[in-house]
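Anyone up for a design puzzle?
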């Protein structure tokens, strides 16, 4: 249903865009229009104001916005512009926005973007079931690609670790740990310097905080690089492994990673790292 809704939104938006700004109702300039419906400000809307604008964009016409979003349907292009539909809250598939960008803008589905622009109006359409849905139309001054961490999960604290454990040529290096509001991230490099294929069991990774054990978390929106289950001899791979969020004031945490070698004459013990968050 989301795809049908998106295509309908874009189709109608193309018609609106073709009509130009003159298609706005003449009452917009009438003296009887509420002053609150034109909010031309120099500073962009705050996070709280942006959330309110999503459901009532007409109250924020002319307001500046500076936000991040994830494109969830292939953008439509015309000579006049690129029409992008994205979620400003992709983790919950919420805060749907329609972005009108420069025709030279090159983005695609699943891209995470940084948008700076102005609220044009509230757009209303029908979904595949005939229900009425609305979304703000944003005239973009700038649209640039970025990444999930920059957009939605900036670290509250970064701990440079740079420790490695070598077992028979099976090497795991923990480069750093990031503590964010919504998750904890372990940056690991796995190197196979043995002569046999090795296996990394990503879903066996564990985080220990005090006496509480946490399993690896799922973050499908982030698109983090994952470690293949089989790693060939002399190959090296990098990964970001997410865990649930921890208190950045926690003193220490422990990380556990498991794997095996296809050289059955050796035994690979769990790789254990202790990380000090606060000296």
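Challenge accepted. My sequence:
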């Amino acid at each position: 249903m989301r795809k049908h809704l998106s295509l309908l939104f874009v189709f109608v938006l193309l018609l609106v865009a073709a009509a130009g700004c003159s298609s706005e109702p003449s009452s917009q300039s009438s003296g009887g229009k509420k002053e609150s419906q034109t909010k031309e400000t120099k500073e962009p809307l705050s996070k709280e104001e942006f959330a309110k604008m999503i459901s009532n964009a007409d109250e924020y016409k002319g307001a500046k916005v500076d936000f991040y979003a994830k494109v969830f349907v292939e953008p439509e292009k015309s000579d006049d512009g690129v029409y992008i539909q994205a979620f400003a809250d992709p983790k919950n598939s919420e805060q749907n926005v329609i972005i009108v960008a420069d025709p030279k803008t090159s983005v695609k589905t699943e891209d995470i973007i940084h948008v700076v622009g102005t609220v044009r109006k509230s757009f209303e359409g029908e979904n595949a079931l005939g229900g009425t849905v609305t979304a703000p139309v944003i005239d973009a001054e700038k649209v640039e690609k970025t990444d999930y961490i920059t957009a939605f999960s900036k670290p509250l604290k970064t701990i440079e670790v740079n420790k490695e454990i070598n077992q028979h040529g099976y090497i795991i290096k923990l480069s750093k740990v990031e503590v964010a509001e919504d998750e904890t991230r372990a940056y690991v490099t796995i190197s196979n310097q043995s002569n046999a294929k090795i296996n990394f069991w990503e879903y066996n990774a564990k985080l220990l905080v005090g006496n509480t054990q946490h399993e690896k978390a799922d973050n499908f929106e982030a698109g983090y690089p994952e470690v293949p289950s089989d790693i060939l001899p002399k190959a090296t791979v990098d990964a970001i492994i997410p865990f649930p969020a921890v208190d950045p004031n926690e003193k220490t945490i422990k990380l556990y990673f498991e794997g095996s070698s296809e050289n059955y004459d050796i035994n690979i013990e769990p790789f254990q790292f202790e990380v000090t968050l606060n000296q």
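A detail worth pointing out: Residues 2-19 form the longest helix (18 residues).
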